[in-house]
Amino acid sequence: MGDMVEVLKQEEEGWWEGIVNGKQGMFPSNFVEIIEEGDSTEPADMDVDIPEEDLDNDNAAAEEMETDEEAAISSEGNYFKKYENCPGHWDPMDEREVNKKGYANIPLQEGSPEYYDVVLPFFKSMVDRSESVEVTRVYRVQNPIKWKYYTVKKEEMILDSEGSGKALEEYLFHGTSSDALDAICRKGLDPRINGKHGTTYGKGSYFAKNASYSHHYTDRRKKINPNLVHPGQPGPSSGMQTVKDKFKARMLFAKVLVGSYTIGNPQLRKPPARNADDPFGKCYDSCVDNIQDPKIFVIFDTTQAYPEYLIEYSYS
Fold first, then answer.
1. Are 226 and 243 in contact (CB under 8 A)?
2. Is residue 166 packed enough to be buried (19+ CB in 10 Å), middle (13-18) or exposed (0-12)?
3. Where is this region: Disordered (predicted)?
4. Given a cut of 50, is residue 41 above it in pLDDT?
5. What distance in Å separates the CA atoms of residue 20 and residue 196, rounded to the nearest whole number?
6. Which of 62, 227, 236, 10 is nearest to 132 (CA)?
7. CA–CA separation, 47 vs 67, rounded Å?
8. pTM for this one?
């Protein structure tokens, strides 16, 4: 008489599923002798004489089959993966989307710490707006390639910071048209095609400490759905504000390596030399509107900025 098997069910003709010595596996019928008659689909005690190596082989085969099934599922339907050398808080991304677009926009959970890290500076720096402003969505822009370029540039600037050991990184706002946002998220901010709204401090990409400044460079897109937005919120005439009374806009909240900076001028296509007596020596990293209290920054190298967040908002 061998070990006792707790039979769970008969899987198919010639095979039983059961537990012996705490191990669950599949057992061929020639190893099993039913000692308690009854419905074969119900659990029963069976006497079994199975060599230990056969039990191990059966279990190994079952585990291998499960692994193969999991791999098949992964290859067919699960394309999400973590990308190397990216921030740890980034979400896994669909490889197909990243391969096609170059990036993924991940919506932030409203009320999360990361959400407030974006929204609070946005509202705080809307300093000269009398309209009602409401953030409707915030996305984290995850572009593995552009992030790599940005971090490499940051390390380069740290080594070149003349002992300060930092790259003077700032979070700044950038306003642009909605049509340009996909290209910016995919390819980064290209100084060659920026500046159509002005080149006061140089022919580069412009960023601002205040969201209210960047707001002037977004496009006004009027909603056409006449449904109510927030019942009870007063509107211009009807006593109830509707969607058609509000405009939508989008703005970027970017990491910018401002580094060492100087006052800009309209003729600049790159930052001037730090030492006027050595025009071929080290250059400044960016240009600003005011040395003592800069509010506007201009960069001329696309790798010096990473558009980390996309803010969608409405205003009236």
1. yes
2. exposed
3. 222-241
4. no
5. 76
6. 236
7. 30
8. 0.68
Q: How many CB atoms lie within 10 A of CB 190?
A: 13
Per-residue pLDDT at 103 exceeds 60: yes
- Of 171, 181, 200, nearest to 258 (Cα)? 171
The 10 Å Cβ neighbour count of residue 119 is 19
Neighbouring C-beta atoms of residue 95, cutoff 10 Å: 14
Using alpha carbons, select from 175, 165, 178, 89 the residue that is nearest to residue 125. Answer: 175
Residue 122 exposed, middle or buried by CB count within 10 Å (0-12, 13-18, 19+): buried
Q: Could you give the CA distance from residue 272 to residue 194 in angstroms, rounded to a whole number? A: 19
pLDDT in tens, 146-167: 999 999 999 999 988 766 666 6
Cβ–Cβ < 8 Å for 81, 34: no
User: Residue 128 and residue 144: Cα distance in Å, rounded?
Assistant: 36
**Distance between CA atoms of residues 195 and 190, nearest Å:** 10
Place of tokens 């990491």: 255
| Alpha carbon distance 183, 189 (integer Å) | 8
Distance CA 203, CA 3 (A): 84
173 and 296 Cβ atoms separated by less than 8 Å: no
Q: Are 262 and 287 in contact (CB under 8 A)?
A: yes
Q: Which residue has the tokens 């790798």?
A: 303
Using an 8 Å Cβ cutoff, are 19 and 8 in contact? yes
Domains, the chain: 3-76 (2.30.30.40), 105-315 (3.90.228.10)
DSSP at 261: E
